[in-house]
Amino acid sequence: MKEKFVIRGGKALRGSVSVGGAKNAAVAILPATILAEDVCTIENLPRIDDVLILLNILQQMGAKVSLDEEGTATIDTTGVRRTDGKINLAKRLRASYYFVGALLGRFSDAAIYLPGGCAIGRRPIDLHIKGLSALGANVHIENGLLMAKAEELVGKDVYLDQVSVGATINIMLAAAKAQGTTTIVNAAKEPHVVDVANFLNCMGAKVKGAGTDIIKVRGVEKLHGCSYSVIPDQIEAGTLMIAAAATRGDVTVQNVIPTHMDALTAKLLEMGVEVEEGDDSLRVRCTKRPRRVSIKTLPYPGFPTDLQQPATVLLSTAEGTSVIVENIFESRFKHIDEIRRMGANVTIDDRVAVVEGVEKLTGAPVRASDLRAGAALIVAGLMADGVTEITNIKYIDRGYDHIEKKLIALGADISRVPDEEPEDDEELHFDFSK
Ligand SMILES: CC(=O)N[C@H]1[C@@H](OP(=O)(O)OP(=O)(O)OC[C@H]2O[C@@H](n3ccc(=O)[nH]c3=O)[C@H](O)[C@@H]2O)O[C@H](CO)[C@@H](O)[C@@H]1O
Ligand SMILES: C=C(OP(=O)(O)O)C(=O)O
């Protein structure tokens, strides 16, 4: 059943909230369990649609899977078989491309439908193909399937022309059991890349340098099962920090790794928002209208593109004119049309958004076009006067584990209700007879 969020805005968020496991680490760690041919216990998984879909795909490939309420999954990949890749669910998310690296490492033979994921601009996979081919795989696309086969995988040097999270992780997966050493140059340094490397090492792999731009993977014969806990979600943490500032609230975001949040913390401080760092928490307090800032999205440790959309919303009521440059994905401004309905004053020129701060936003019916656009609209609804209805929230459920429950605990007035409106493309039946 379709659902929507109804938010009565204008309430300052107050209290403490705990962040769940990182989506972008979890969605790589789950396919990586295939490399072990053994039992892995993965703790701190967020109960989000992307995770549930990946667990189901693993099951369809022959793994035995269980998941408890706390987000601990036990995955026995002993029975995973080679696959023709025709698993429809794989088209529903981006991370299904990690099955190629993992299956290639296990069977030297992989196939999976080309990935889906958020429509935020061009999302080519040429660097994945370049890296896997360098290791000796014959990679091609046929009937919508991404297929890779190798006589033998052999470690090589791979230079990434552009920093890519997905390509870095996929090459690490394929290299973990290859002959010899693979060196990834210009690797992504995101916390989730480091988390996947740590998980591979926990299974017996030899990955060094994750978190720097040169990663070395010395292939080993065999990997084994292990117990591993996923790191906290940098983007959920950031969304909550932004929501705290946007509502002029006072929120302690717990279970975070503060250094992962440095780029956002720096921008909040520049806006005049107070941020107090604890060992594994960040307290965000905002008592006055934030000041304008400029933001450029960049690979880690730069400002994350996944937080650009909520940050733009926060700046829509800041004092002065902010400039946002989106360097990673060219179509990541779709939330702006929606916040204009709420009174925001933003102009877009290609990858640059110029945000003239207004006094306040007012509630309106809006639609989530993608995951972080949806999160941004929640922030907008929380800070606006009046009622905001957000439809198409299936995107938000891909990446946030019942975010409304966490917000309600902080004092927000937000509810998830059935959405009776027909889809835009649903056939309409009007009856104009008397
Ligand atoms: C599941 C997952 O982890 N998703 C994240 C991952 O997406 P994803 O792994 O898809 O993003 P990448 O880091 O690969 O993309 C970065 C840039 O590289 C380009 N590129 C990428 C691969 C390629 O083969 N060729 C190429 O040109 C992309 O178009 C983009 O401009 O990192 C993005 C950037 O931090 C985040 O927004 C996503 O939330
Ligand atoms: C873009 C995102 O996800 P995906 O890469 O899975 O589409 C995201 O998490 O913001």
UniProtKB/TrEMBL annotation:
<dbReference type="InterPro" id="IPR001986">
    <property type="entry name" value="Enolpyruvate_Tfrase_dom"/>
</dbReference>
<dbReference type="Pfam" id="PF00275">
    <property type="entry name" value="EPSP_synthase"/>
</dbReference>
<dbReference type="GO" id="GO:0051301">
    <property type="term" value="P:cell division"/>
</dbReference>
<keyword id="KW-0131">Cell cycle</keyword>
<dbReference type="GO" id="GO:0008760">
    <property type="term" value="F:UDP-N-acetylglucosamine 1-carboxyvinyltransferase activity"/>
</dbReference>
<dbReference type="InterPro" id="IPR050068">
    <property type="entry name" value="MurA_subfamily"/>
</dbReference>
<feature type="binding site">
    <location>
        <begin position="123"/>
        <end position="127"/>
    </location>
    <ligand>
        <name>UDP-N-acetyl-alpha-D-glucosamine</name>
    </ligand>
</feature>
<comment type="function">
    <text>Cell wall formation. Adds enolpyruvyl to UDP-N-acetylglucosamine.</text>
</comment>
<dbReference type="GO" id="GO:0071555">
    <property type="term" value="P:cell wall organization"/>
</dbReference>
<dbReference type="GO" id="GO:0008360">
    <property type="term" value="P:regulation of cell shape"/>
</dbReference>
<feature type="binding site">
    <location>
        <begin position="23"/>
        <end position="24"/>
    </location>
    <ligand>
        <name>phosphoenolpyruvate</name>
    </ligand>
</feature>
<comment type="similarity">
    <text>Belongs to the EPSP synthase family. MurA subfamily.</text>
</comment>
<keyword id="KW-0808">Transferase</keyword>
<feature type="binding site">
    <location>
        <position position="306"/>
    </location>
    <ligand>
        <name>UDP-N-acetyl-alpha-D-glucosamine</name>
    </ligand>
</feature>
<feature type="binding site">
    <location>
        <position position="328"/>
    </location>
    <ligand>
        <name>UDP-N-acetyl-alpha-D-glucosamine</name>
    </ligand>
</feature>
<comment type="pathway">
    <text>Cell wall biogenesis; peptidoglycan biosynthesis.</text>
</comment>
<keyword id="KW-0670">Pyruvate</keyword>
<feature type="binding site">
    <location>
        <position position="94"/>
    </location>
    <ligand>
        <name>UDP-N-acetyl-alpha-D-glucosamine</name>
    </ligand>
</feature>
<dbReference type="InterPro" id="IPR013792">
    <property type="entry name" value="RNA3'P_cycl/enolpyr_Trfase_a/b"/>
</dbReference>
<feature type="domain" description="Enolpyruvate transferase">
    <location>
        <begin position="8"/>
        <end position="407"/>
    </location>
</feature>
<feature type="modified residue" description="2-(S-cysteinyl)pyruvic acid O-phosphothioketal">
    <location>
        <position position="118"/>
    </location>
</feature>
<keyword id="KW-0961">Cell wall biogenesis/degradation</keyword>
<protein>
    <recommendedName>
        <fullName>UDP-N-acetylglucosamine 1-carboxyvinyltransferase</fullName>
        <ecNumber>2.5.1.7</ecNumber>
    </recommendedName>
</protein>
<keyword id="KW-0963">Cytoplasm</keyword>
<keyword id="KW-0133">Cell shape</keyword>
<dbReference type="GO" id="GO:0005737">
    <property type="term" value="C:cytoplasm"/>
</dbReference>
<dbReference type="InterPro" id="IPR005750">
    <property type="entry name" value="UDP_GlcNAc_COvinyl_MurA"/>
</dbReference>
<dbReference type="GO" id="GO:0019277">
    <property type="term" value="P:UDP-N-acetylgalactosamine biosynthetic process"/>
</dbReference>
<keyword id="KW-0132">Cell division</keyword>
<keyword id="KW-0573">Peptidoglycan synthesis</keyword>
<feature type="active site" description="Proton donor">
    <location>
        <position position="118"/>
    </location>
</feature>
<dbReference type="GO" id="GO:0009252">
    <property type="term" value="P:peptidoglycan biosynthetic process"/>
</dbReference>
<dbReference type="InterPro" id="IPR036968">
    <property type="entry name" value="Enolpyruvate_Tfrase_sf"/>
</dbReference>
